[in-house]
Every structure is written in C-alpha cells, then in structure tokens.
C-alpha cells in the first residue's frame, strides 16, 4: 500500500512526498460513552489504518485529496479555515490544521493524499484515524514537539469544534497511543494510559468485528443529547463529572435524579466498573473472562443508554447463541459494528450464524473483520 500511496501522491500533487504516516481505527473492548464523562475505557487499535502522504507548502495552501473521494483536490487557504467552512470528509484533516493554529502553533499549508482501509460509518473511528494521521504528520513536518496525548487532544478539538461532533477523547487516544499486542487502559480525565497485554492467539481466541453496515452519523444530534443529559445529571448531583460517582453510591444518587436521567447515569457508572474488571482480568492473563462483561455491557447500552438498534442486537444475540464467549456493540452506536470474543476454532461458525440470522431477518449481510491488537499512529515511510 505504501508504494501506491506514494505514487498516487506524486500523480495528484506533481512531486514526491516528504514522508508517509499511518494511524489506525479502533475497537473499544469496554467503556462506551464514558470518555466524555471523564471516565475509563479499554480500546485497542486495529490493523486497518488511514495512510497519509504529505509535503509542506510555503504558500499557505492546504491541498487535500483522498483515494476514497471523488477524484477532486480540495484546495483551502490555511488562514481562512473556520468551523463550518469545509464540507464532507475534508473537514477532518482540515480541522486538525485549524486546531493546531488555534493553539498558537506556527503551522502552514501542505499537500496531503489520504488512503484509508478503516470502514467508514462502522463505529471503528474512521474519522479519528484521519485526524490523528494528519496530527502526527504535522507534528513531525513542522517540528511541534507535542506529546501523544496533546496530539489526541488536538484531534478531538478538531472533531468537536471544527467538524461539530461532540465526541470524547477515547478514539483519538487509542489511535495515537495504542501498542501492538495490548489494549489501552485510558483515564479520560488525566489522559493517563496503561498498556494491558491482550494475547488472543496465545489463549486460542479471536475477536471478530461484525460490521452491520448500518451507517451512523454522530453529528445528527442524538450523541449530543446523550452527552448533555450526562452533564446535566452531574450538575444535579454536584459532581464535576459522572466519573466521580462510585458504583456503591449509585442507588442513592439515582433517587435524586429525574426519571429520564436515571438510565444514563446507571449505564455510565456500571460501565466504568466493567472497565476496571476487564482490565484486571486481562492483566491476570484471563482474556476469556472478558466475554460476559461484553454481553453485560451491550445490555446496558441497549436498555439504559438506548444506542443499539435491531441489527446490532441481532448480531449480539446470534453470536452468543452460536458459542461466542461474549459480544457487544462497539462505538457510539445507532448502527455500526459488534465485537464478538470467540474461540479460534469456532470463529467461522459464529460468523456464519450471524450472517444467517441477518438473512433470516431480511437484513443485508454483515461484513466480518478480525480485530488484532495493533500499533498506534506512526511514520511508515
């Protein structure tokens, strides 16, 4: 792929790139909708990546091209970048350049060519991969001296303030900070991270990603409403964030809230606790124990948080019935993907069972990927 990306850059931009960078998509093992509540999550990077070829420009122009686009080059003046000024996919890389300048950093233009293998709209953080690959490339091209958590914050700010999606920081932290063979235990408040060994193959396990092909758009208002509900609940409870509510305090706290906020708070608090239990089991070398926590987490996302849908629910149900150790939707919800922890010798049977269940329900066939704990953003050429 590297040679193709380099060749496409030269064809589009008429000169050689200064380098190639890659940033992965991610699956979140557990800890969904906790990051914007200052909570905990346990994501891992995927082998699928956004790859960027880039070269600086000294004329203040940002020229963007994507192998997944319509073939046209989007040309922008860096000095004119502003929220809402760039439509479509280009708002993610352009937003990163804007966010760097908003921090007072002296960054200019560039020629960029992007090519991504992260499925779009599948809940696997394709947008974060685009943002993070631009962030790490600009960090090196312009010698910014930013640490990885700072780059993640820049990418998150680009998505929040420029693209208009009020996401937390988990996706970007996973994309820049994950390491091969590990899941990333993330504290979303401090941005403290801990690499937790996740040896699937050594325990005869595989992690399947079942892409329902139901497209989700987190900018449609539903995600923002959930976040606002959580922030309102924290204010009513006198907390800085729901992360500060312990599981043992939950029953008393729920009695002080309006009925509409109760399920949101219950999900966030119990999900934070599930992250802790999952990290303990992985650290103890017991990855198979993750299974029941996945299924429990999905029930919470479905019943309390209301972000599942018929396709994700069916994928979880069919996978578990076919022998999966556990399964749950991953990502923001409203469609996207399900992860299923399976014994290696049962992976094909589980995938077939989910596909058959979708056919029986009249749904389109899901795409099946394998999630392997992979490396975060890096220079590749």
Automatic annotation (TrEMBL):
GHMP kinase C-terminal domain boundaries: 280-359
GO terms, molecular function: galactokinase activity
Domain of life: Bacteria
GHMP kinase N-terminal domain location: 92-177
Key word Transferase present: yes
Protein's UniProt keywords contain Transmembrane helix: no
EC class (word): transferase
InterPro entries: Galactokinase, Galactokinase_CS, GalKase_N, GHMP_kinase_C_dom, GHMP_kinase_C_sf, GHMP_kinase_N_dom, GHMP_knse_ATP-bd_CS, Mevalonate/galactokinase
Key words of the record: ATP-binding, Carbohydrate metabolism, Galactose metabolism, Kinase, Nucleotide-binding, Transferase
EC identifiers of the protein: 2.7.1.6
Protein name according to UniProt: Galactokinase
UniProt source species: Streptomyces racemochromogenes
Gene label: galK
